[in-house]
Design a protein that fits this description.
- There is one protein chain.
- By secondary structure, the chain is of the alpha/beta class.
- The chain has a domain of 160 residues: Rossmann fold.
- The protein is 43% helix and 20% strand.
- Strands 3-2-1-4-5-7-6 form a 7-stranded mixed β-sheet, with helices on both faces.
- Helix 1 runs parallel beside helix 2 and helix 4 packs parallel to helix 7.
- It starts with 12 loop residues before the first strand and ends with a helix.
- The C terminus is likely disordered.
- This is Methyltransferase family protein.
- GO terms for molecular function: S-adenosylmethionine-dependent methyltransferase activity.
- It holds the Pfam family Methyltransf_11.
- It comes from Actinomadura hallensis.
Length: 250
């Protein structure tokens, strides 16, 4: 996510739909939002809840910000219509067989004028992963489709969203997943996979200029994820009453 493009104000109600381990939810909390981290995996949510508590104790979020976890199904979310100011759905739609129904739920719970950010695996890196490993995409809970950006945007537009731009991210991560698929997606002890993983952890922690520049160059070519920014159209203005009706009311 680029939070310069997807700005979140203190006090905004923000949903992290399919939050996983909570990376985006934690950043939203730091920025002062009222965050709901939503996922179907109770174990993942337990870890997110513990991190929210640690952040509160350490003063990592503004005092008036709130954060909670909610377990549920993306196809039938337990939230009222027009409830959230912003929603993030990161690396989740590719897991859902009925993705159109999930998109309609996102439209339902987002307020008119609200913003949505969706990320999914980019087409080319994902095609390579599928070609290298059947386990990568056939494991329970795995990816059920490969999106092109055009298909993703078309589906989101068909349920009413307006597209507002895109970019690619995590260009350094694609080679790691290609290595994992080549040596076995569950083979975490393979020397090459372990070495590349250490590189990624070092890059995330240190963010050196050299790897930042390398990733900027690689993102448009082999960025592991594509990020699409969208908006729900604002509610139409209430038409003015005819002059004669106004006069009668007076």
């Amino acid at each position: 996510m680029d939070f310069e493009r997807f700005r979140v104000k203190p006090g905004d109600r923000v949903l992290d739909m399919g939050c996983g381990a909570g990376r985006h939810a934690f950043e939203l909390y730091r920025r002062g939002a009222h965050v709901v981290a939503f996922d179907r995996d109770a174990e993942e949510l337990s870890g997110v809840e513990k991190m929210f508590g640690a952040m509160r104790m350490d003063g990592e979020a503004p005092e008036d910000a709130t954060a909670e976890t909610v377990q549920g199904d993306a196809l039938d979310m337990p939230f009222p219509d027009d409830h959230f100011d912003s929603i993030i759905a990161s690396e989740v739609l590719e897991h859902i067989p009925d993705d159109m129904r999930a998109m309609r739920e996102l439209m339902r719970v987002l307020r008119p004028g609200g913003r949505l950010a969706v990320t999914v695996p980019s087409w080319l890196p994902e095609r390579v992963c599928w070609a290298l490993s059947e386990d990568y995409h056939t494991a329970p809970g795995g990816h059920v489709r490969i999106y092109t950006r055009a298909e993703l945007e078309a589906k989101l537009k068909s349920v009413g969203f307006r597209v507002g731009g895109h970019h690619h991210a995590h260009g350094l991560h694609s080679p790691y997943w290609w290595i994992k698929c080549a040596v076995g997606v569950n083979n975490d002890d393979h020397p090459l996979a372990k070495a590349y993983h250490r590189l990624l952890v070092w890059d995330i922690m240190k963010r050196p200029l050299a790897t930042r520049l390398a990733e900027q160059a690689l993102n448009p070519l082999i960025g592991k994820s594509v990020v699409v920014y969208l908006a729900k159209p604002a509610a139409p203005a209430t038409p003015a009453a005819p002059a004669e009706e106004t006069a009668d009311a007076v």
